[in-house]
User: Fold this.
Amino acid sequence: MIQAVKSPSRRRLIAFVVALGGVALIAAAPTPDGLSTRGQYAFATMFFAGFLWVTGALPLAVTALSIPVMLTALGVYADLDIALRGFADHIIFLFIAGFMLANALQKYDIDRRIALRLLVSMGTSPRRIVLAVMLATAFLSMWVSNTATAAMMLPIALGVLAQVVGREGITAPDADPGAEIDEVDSGQAAADATGTTNFQRSLLLGTAYAASVGGVGTLIGTPPNAILAGQLNSILGYEISFADWLLIGLPIVAVTLPLVWVLLTVVLFPPRISDVSGARQQAREELREQGPLSVRGRRVAVIFAATATLWVVGGLGDGVQYLMDQGVLPLPQTWHNTLYGTTDGQTVFGVSGHQGLLYYVVVGMVAIPALVLADTVDWEDIVDIDWGTILLFGGGISLADALAATGATEWIADVIFTSLTGSPIVLVVAVVVLLVIFLTEMTSNTATSTIIVPILIGIGGVFAGTLGLPQEAASIFLAVSGAIAASFAFALPVATPPNAIVFGSGYLEQKDMMKAGIILNIIMTAVLTGLIWLLFTFVWPHVLW
Assistant:
């Protein structure tokens, strides 16, 4: 028993020592041509963090906190204050606000009500039930973290299974293969030797995959999006507004989510059940038991809707300016400057230069005191958020800053990606998407994005000519492609938090996730490559540069 307790600690210590050994070897090696000494030490820090993230030797947030310490200890930065600046990046506070809004929604079961209403309205067949659960999961994942969404939707999915195939029919992989399976529709449940039905597989996998895909839709939906936004701002000084990202993310979700549903329910695991009335009835009963939304719940819904609306409106500054210039919208320029921001124009406050009241981070942060003033939440209700993810963002931004400041990202881009220079755009995108999906299968999508996004930003100069874009625009294009791909790793539980949550329920076999995930990874590589190319050709020139 003592040995069993010590073993994980020993493995953790061994991994940490190996990470330090790798740092020493990289730092002591001869400095390659074209790379500065500080850039070499930044790579040593990246190895240290990447190794610990991949192995899970330390919690992700703990590793993130060690990054500024390592950067300062190696002399990449002469001042710890500079190394810590990533933890104060504005995108961190956007996610703090998003997490706190999500807690308020969950306190009043608003997210659950949305899911149940979709189930009642669409649950007329097994495939439509899977679609209803996936739509609810994807929609909620746009606003609530995909981790929290998957954790909330999993019990709903299990409840649906209990109503459709009977509680005895929801079989865990390690259950007795001879366990009794409730017969549904004259025995058409079609359980295999393990007692697991196709409906069970498609519903649970659909829940996990929809949480990942849906998170792509908005800037706050999944950590890779936030990591991308923070590092673009930190490295290039470029801002992606909330509305800009909707023009990128929503088309991706609109195409890939139905495709995942079709592949799961038609090609891979077609349900062989026809009677699903029990699931709809259960959803109706749960909604009836919950009763009407309370006054405070309605206030939360209003504040959330207003915040989401202002996030979108805040990204329409150029359109509003165009209408003003055409004389269509009689809005004084000082008010436009105050609402949407200006670098040197006058505002209604009599000052020049302003971030803008509709700046999406400002809007998100205002929502928090609004919730408290509306008497809907106390500090204790909203403070219980995923602070580990917040710290992970900060550490990732600090690492990206160091890699960019020392020229390390440009150097690795020249070494690794030069062979693709002059290749067709589609091939470049396909390589980036495939590389990111493969890396994400080995570790979490958050860790992969933290490591790969600054590298993709750095290779913009290498591919600017190939893509026919200025260097900054090429960097943005490649980094956005990589961040999107990080949410499409479906084969292994470790790849994304939704995968881990659903697999950890014990009602899904790893071979089923592997089967579906490998096929989806291959198909999604091709689909994302095509979608990203289409967006790059017809949409992004009007959005990103």
The chain has 25 helices and two strands. The beta strands are 342-346, 352-354.
